[in-house]
Amino acid sequence: MYVRYRPSLLSWRLLYLGKMIGLRVVLGRTGDNRRERMDTHDWILVATQDAETRAATTRLFNRAGFRIRSLGSGEAALSTIDGDRPSLMIIDLALDDTSGYELCYEVKQRFGQELPVVLLSEDRTEPRDRVAGLLIGADDYLAKPFDPDELLARARRLLTDAQRVDARREFDLTPREIDVLRELADGLGRRAAARKLSISPKTVATHVQNILTKLGVHSSAEAVALAYRSGLIGSAEVRGKGGGTAGPRG
């Protein structure tokens, strides 16, 4: 008996993922200056007077492929970031000339969400200390001695979030355009995306055209590939919505 083979949804998604990976390679070779800037390696600034913390963080992030610089004073850290903003700051509460709280507050006043900050402390580890750090703007707070894997995981999460903020500002996509792009990445076609977002297919088509223009690409598939590559959307966002990574269909 002849049975016609029908590819499963997972098969289509795997095929599309392979296509998307190929598109990322092409975009990586031919992308404009905006995309090239996103390929530059992140660098991390550690502010601490503790030699052990300095050595541990340097070893950890160098092995993970990050450039890292360590300074012992708040004044030196502020002077450095004014001339060359890092992608992430790790601030020990114990510094030569100020407290880590004060340095974190000053950094956040100058850079806001553009520069994520992790606070470290060996002595101030009570819940009220963590709350105080978060209230002045810290993005995360870890007690010393810290687990290297945990610090690396938290740092990578913050870097991903910061890259997404930068990418959305860079490409100037509206919140609704981001919503449409997520649905396309989750495998929905324009009609299905319209139903999901409670808007008309014509409105979705307008958003898609705006997305293609702003990203400088010619198809929804290229838009999705570039969105992943630049950090406009993350794989976790899409998996959380639709159970896997897929391309536009329908």
Secondary structure: elements and pairs:
Layout: H1 9-30, H2 33-38, E1 43-47, H3 51-63, E2 67-71, H4 74-83, E3 88-92, H5 100-111, E4 117-121, H6 127-135, E5 140-143, H7 148-171, H8 175-185, H9 190-197, H10 201-215, H11 220-230, H12 235-242
Helix pairs in contact: 1-11, 8-9, 8-10, 8-11, 9-10
What does this structure look like?
By secondary structure, the chain is of the alpha/beta class. It has 2 domains: 9-38 and 172-242, Rossmann fold, CATH 3.40.50.2300; 43-168, Rossmann fold (3-Layer(aba) Sandwich). It contains 12 helices and 5 strands. The protein has helices at 9-30, 33-38, 51-63, 74-83, 100-111, 127-135, 148-171, 175-185, 190-197, 201-215, 220-230, 235-242, and strands spanning 43-47, 67-71, 88-92, 117-121, 140-143. Strands 2-1-3-4-5 form a 5-stranded parallel sheet, with helices on both faces. Strand 4 (117-121), helix 6 (127-135) and strand 5 form a beta-alpha-beta unit. Helix 9 packs across helix 10. It is elongated. The protein starts with 8 loop residues before the first helix and ends in an 8-residue tail after the last helix. Residues 1-40 and 239-247 have low confidence and may be disordered.
Name of the CATH class of the largest domain: Alpha Beta
Number of strands: 5
- The CATH topology annotation of the largest domain reads as Rossmann fold
Radius of gyration: 22 Å
CATH architecture of the largest domain: 3-Layer(aba) Sandwich
Count of distinct structural domains: 2
Strand content: 5-15%
Major sheet: 5 strands, parallel
Strand order of the largest sheet: 2-1-3-4-5
Low-confidence stretches: 1-40, 239-247
> Helix content range of the residues, please?
55-70%
Q: Can you tell me the overall shape?
A: elongated
